[in-house]
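Recall the central idea of this unit: under ordinary conditions, the amino acid sequence of a chain determines the structure it adopts. In this exercise we apply that idea directly, starting from the sequence alone.
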Amino acid sequence: MDGDRSRVGESRVEWICALLRDRETDSRAALRHYWRQVSDAAVTYGPLFFELSGHAMQGRAHAVSLRESLIQPWLEPLELIFQRRGSDGAQAAVQARISLAVARGLLLDLLLSGDRAGVDAAMGHLIDTELGAR
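Accordingly, the structure predicted from this sequence is:
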């Protein structure tokens, strides 16, 4: 059952990883598209995501397995993006972690404020700032 809960997230990670491994893919466009998908889904599933994240932080038995799937698998595609942009491994890892944290924060902002335009603008700024024009 625990595997079923994280399957949707895993398929999203697999999809973005496959997309970003294709050297012809524009990372900025892929991230904008991905953000739209994730933020659209967050309107429905975000409260449950954050609730279960809290359960995982508290070590509740039903959510312990989420500790392994909520952070690390999401860092790989982000690290790949930054490495493709010229960052070394350590720098790419830091940039990936910051980007994931900002994205999660913006999802929380969206859920609490309902300000879709504001969070989309902030994510667009992050993508433009971190990836720049190619």
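The CA atoms of residues 32 and 124 lie 7 Å apart.
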